[in-house]
């Protein structure tokens, strides 16, 4: 028996323990390697073993590492009694599947563990299923994120959510070539848009159509009367139903990141993903980028398993590689971007060129098969294959004598490096590094939509939980990117930030932030511009550091051989001890982007409190030009129903010459009993608005009768020219009450005006509450979704599988 052997253990036994420890768990390899290299030095080995034993007793090792490390300690006879007396502790805190996987040739430890497991099988099941204090903390943190998401999903939306669903439902009505049908439909309605009619590959529309048909069959929605995208009843229920597949994709990504993380870092990975604003935003906006993100993450997980299996000499490794690239091919049928990972993944998954060629061809065939039926449709070719957004990824700059795409150049450099690098250097984490390198270089060197940031997010989250030695590095970069995303969100078009609430009530529609600042708070303009510049610079620096870190770690690859130098096993360095992340500490970091977003929203609402807009139909029917000879025009308006705090007059600066800095506005009710109210407005030129802005202080009061607005240029130059568009006038119950008087002529129509009002908080939220309460099914569905999310979180947290 091993317990009766002398203190100086033979070399063979040390080597056996080392190999077993290395095979069972990567993190305990340092203990086994230490045993192998100190086979002739019993005192040194016993010191190292003592340090490891102290770590285990202190709880520094997880369930995944505990039992294999005890096996390695069997090589130290000094601890035989302590180890064997601790068998009940091991079995009580280790999953049975881990115990059953242990087979050691030189000790009776495996049989002792198996016997104790069998004898305790009749123990109350709650001993193994009870969540620890840290697990409960992570569960609360993750659940809180999804509670917020579920709360905001029914009340927020952007135009693309309903537009994509409306386009997809035509497939269910027999128009299988959605691209040709939508194009013809737009032509019949004389609808002109700068965007492609149907800009996504067919897989997205097919899945959306299948989901809509499922909802229709169970009676949750109806196609009746759905002639335009917004021609629906009970928007809140529709918003939640249409976003449920996106929520499912979000949860599956969280589960995959949880399962892929190293021991103890799984909950951190899921919580980081759950609180990533770049991912949560897509559930509010209703954009489909979570689909390709799901498939890229699935491909990376399968690829990492393939590399692990190949290193262990298992025969199914190539099958996992094939499954990985199949995921990329399917993802490309939703958005083409997953194809960017095919070549670097193929070079990493196998060393054989014929296998690499096969791996590259599989996703190409999948995407080609989905595109083949539509290659003769111009709307598909121009809108999907050569979409203007996708083409801009290859934007070039002038370097020396040639225009060069920096993204393509960095991509080619990555491929060359992967070809030249010895395959023995390959590690499972390399695929996560490759994904981080590809997408960070794309955002750094090419034009991109801001919500594409979600493509990079899961790779950074995974590196926090897999590359634990540099977890702080990746966590800081994640934090910078997410805070930058939250801040820059409010520098976008209003429909991408607080305008998401306008889908529930038009009272939540405000003027553009830059226009509001220029009109009501010009002193804030310069600090805001500095904030945008600093944030963009920090964002670019984070992308650059991600690219540099990923390439550096790929360059630093080493062969799968034990390190020659052994450090002490004690927890002298936190990254070596792999201490368990504490949810309370990480919560402070994870909540910072959400806090930044909340503060930004509060600031925008405060600045825009007097800039809730009343906009009119924008169908141009003519043009009006003011000059020094005819410097004024009058606009008759329908009666006011709310006090007016300001006005915006759009001006076509491209057709104007020397527009004066000032314009006078006088408002005169039709009744002579009221005197005119006059004010001066300034010329405003921002990326979102060009024209004159007027502040009415005090606000223009409510009138029960029509009134007239007179606009007059102030001190125009002799050759000054100011042009504005005339749009079709809205209909009222009293008939047409919008007329323009200019140069002694009258015309039915409306100048390009926007009326500003004070934001009525009570009326806005009352309107939202009415929409939410219109259908009781919304609350039932919301509750079921919340319960399902909680069950998934508990089930995933309670059963931990080895990391990848």
List the helices and strands and how they pair.
Blueprint: H1 11-24, H2 29-37, H3 42-57, H4 63-73, H5 80-85, H6 87-92, H7 96-100, H8 109-119, H9 126-129, H10 133-152, H11 159-172, H12 178-188, H13 202-217, H14 235-260, H15 266-274, H16 277-285, H17 290-311, H18 317-332, H19 342-349, H20 353-371, H21 378-385, H22 388-391, E1 397-399, E2 402-404, H23 406-420, H24 430-445, H25 457-466, H26 471-488, H27 513-520, H28 525-555, H29 574-577, H30 583-607, E3 612-615, E4 620-627, E5 632-637, E6 644-650, E7 662-669, E8 677-685, E9 690-700, E10 707-713, E11 721-727, E12 739-742, E13 745-748, E14 750-751, E15 753-757, H31 761-772, H32 777-798
Antiparallel strand pairs: 1-2, 3-15, 4-11, 5-10, 5-12, 6-9, 6-15, 7-8, 7-10, 8-9, 11-14, 12-13
Helix pairs in contact: 1-2, 1-4, 3-4, 10-15, 10-32, 11-13, 14-15, 14-16, 14-17, 14-32, 15-25, 17-18, 18-19, 18-20, 19-20, 19-23, 23-24, 24-25, 24-28, 25-26, 26-28, 26-30
Task: Name some characteristics of this structure.
804 residues; alpha+beta; ten-stranded antiparallel beta sheet; 15 strands
How would you sum up this structure, described in words?
The chain is of the alpha+beta class and 804 residues long. It has a 10-stranded antiparallel beta sheet with strand order 3-15-6-9-8-7-10-5-12-13, covered by helices on one side. A 3-stranded antiparallel beta sheet has the order 4-11-14, with no helix packed on it. Strands 1-2 form a two-stranded antiparallel sheet. A hairpin with a 4-residue loop joins β8 and β9. α3 (42-57) packs antiparallel against α4 (63-73) and α14 (235-260) runs parallel beside α32 (777-798). The longest helix has 31 residues, at 525-555. It is elongated, with a radius of gyration of 32 Å. The model is unreliable at 1-16, 18-48, 56-64, 75-87, 89-95, 97-129, 559-578 and 800-804 (pLDDT under 50).
């Amino acid at each position: 028996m091993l317990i009766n052997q002398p203190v100086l253990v033979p070399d063979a036994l040390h080597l056996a323990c080392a190999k077993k420890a290395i095979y069972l768990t990567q993190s305990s390899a340092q203990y086994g390697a230490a045993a192998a290299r100190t086979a002739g030095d019993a005192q040194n080995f016993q010191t190292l073993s003592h340090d490891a034993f102290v770590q285990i007793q202190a709880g520094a090792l997880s369930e995944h590492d505990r039992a294999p490390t005890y096996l390695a300690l069997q090589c130290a006879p000094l601890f035989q009694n302590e180890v064997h007396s601790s068998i009940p502790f091991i079995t009580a805190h280790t999953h049975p599947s881990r115990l059953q996987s242990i087979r050691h040739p030189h000790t009776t430890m495996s049989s002792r563990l198996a016997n104790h497991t069998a004898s305790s099988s009749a123990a109350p099941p709650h001993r193994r299923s009870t969540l620890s204090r840290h697990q409960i903390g992570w569960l609360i943190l993750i659940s809180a994120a999804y509670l917020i998401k579920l709360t905001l999903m029914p009340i927020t939306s952007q135009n693309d959510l309903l537009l994509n669903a409306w386009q997809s439902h035509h497939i269910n009505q027999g128009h299988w070539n959605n691209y040709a049908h939508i194009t013809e439909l737009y032509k019949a309605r004389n609808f002109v848009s700068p965007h492609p009619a149907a800009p996504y590959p067919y897989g997205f529309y097919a899945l959306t159509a299948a989901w809509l048909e499922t909802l229709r069959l169970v009676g949750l929605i109806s196609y009746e009367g759905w002639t335009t995208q917004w021609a629906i009843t009970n928007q809140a229920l529709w918003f939640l139903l249409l976003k449920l597949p996106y929520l499912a994709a979000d949860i599956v990504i969280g589960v995959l990141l949880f399962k892929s993380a190293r021991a103890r870092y799984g909950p951190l990975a899921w919580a980081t993903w759950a609180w990533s604003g770049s991912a949560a935003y897509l559930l509010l906006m209703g954009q489909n980028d979570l689909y390709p993100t799901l498939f890229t993450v699935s491909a990376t997980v399968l690829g990492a398993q393939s590399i692990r299996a190949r290193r262990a000499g298992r025969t199914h490794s190539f099958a996992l590689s094939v499954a990985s690239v199949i995921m990329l091919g399917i993802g490309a049928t939703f958005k083409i971007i997953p194809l960017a990972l095919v070549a670097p993944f193929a070079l990493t998954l196998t060393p054989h060129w014929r296998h690499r060629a096969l791996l590259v061809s599989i996703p190409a065939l999948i995407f080609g098969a989905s595109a083949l039926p539509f290659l003769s449709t111009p709307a598909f070719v121009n809108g999907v294959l050569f979409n203007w957004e996708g083409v801009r990824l290859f934007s070039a700059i002038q370097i020396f004598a040639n225009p060069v795409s920096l993204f393509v150049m960095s991509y080619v450099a990555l491929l060359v490096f992967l070809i030249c690098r010895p395959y023995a250097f390959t590690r499972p984490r390399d695929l996560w590094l490759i994904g981080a390198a590809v997408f960070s270089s794309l955002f750094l060197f090419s034009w991109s939509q801001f919500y594409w940031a979600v493509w990079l997010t899961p790779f950074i989250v995974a590196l926090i939980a897999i590359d634990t030695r540099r977890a702080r590095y990746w966590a800081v970069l994640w934090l910078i990117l997410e805070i930058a995303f939250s801040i820059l969100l409010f520098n976008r078009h209003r429909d991408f930030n607080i305008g998401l609430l306008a889908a529930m009530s038009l009272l939540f529609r405000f003027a553009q932030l830059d226009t509001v600042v220029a009109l009501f708070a010009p002193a804030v303009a310069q600090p805001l511009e500095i904030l945008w510049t600093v944030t963009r610079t920090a964002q670019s620096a984070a992308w650059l550091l991600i690219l540099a870190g990923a390439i550096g770690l790929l360059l630093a690859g080493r062969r799968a051989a034990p390190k020659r130098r052994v450090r002490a096993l004690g927890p002298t360095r936190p990254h070596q001890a792999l201490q368990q992340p504490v949810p309370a500490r990480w919560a402070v970091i994870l909540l910072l982007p959400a806090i930044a977003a909340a503060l930004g929203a509060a600031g925008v609402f405060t600045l825009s409190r007097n800039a809730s807009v009343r906009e009119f139909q924008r169908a141009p029917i003519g043009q009006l030009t003011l000059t020094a000879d005819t410097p004024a025009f009058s606009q008759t308006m329908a009666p006011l129903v709310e006090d007016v705090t300001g006005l915006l007059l759009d001006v076509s600066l491209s057709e104007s010459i020397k527009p004066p800095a000032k314009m006078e506005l006088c408002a005169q009710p039709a009744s002579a009993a009221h005197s005119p109210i006059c004010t001066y407005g300034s010329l405003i030129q921002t990326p979102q608005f060009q024209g004159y802005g007027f502040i009415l202080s005090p606000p223009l009061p409510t009138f029960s009768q029509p009134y007239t607005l007179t606009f007059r240029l102030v001190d125009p130059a002799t050759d000054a020219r100011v042009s504005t568009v005339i749009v079709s006038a809205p209909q009222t119950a009293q008939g047409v009450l919008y007329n323009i008087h200019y140069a002694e002529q009258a015309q039915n129509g409306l100048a390009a005006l926007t009326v500003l009002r004070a934001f009525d908080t009570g009326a806005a939220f009352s309107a939202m509450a009415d929409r939410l309460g219109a259908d009781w099914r919304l609350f039932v569905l919301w509750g079921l979704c919340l319960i399902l999310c909680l069950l998934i979180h508990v089930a995933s947290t309670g059963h931990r599988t080895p990391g990848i």
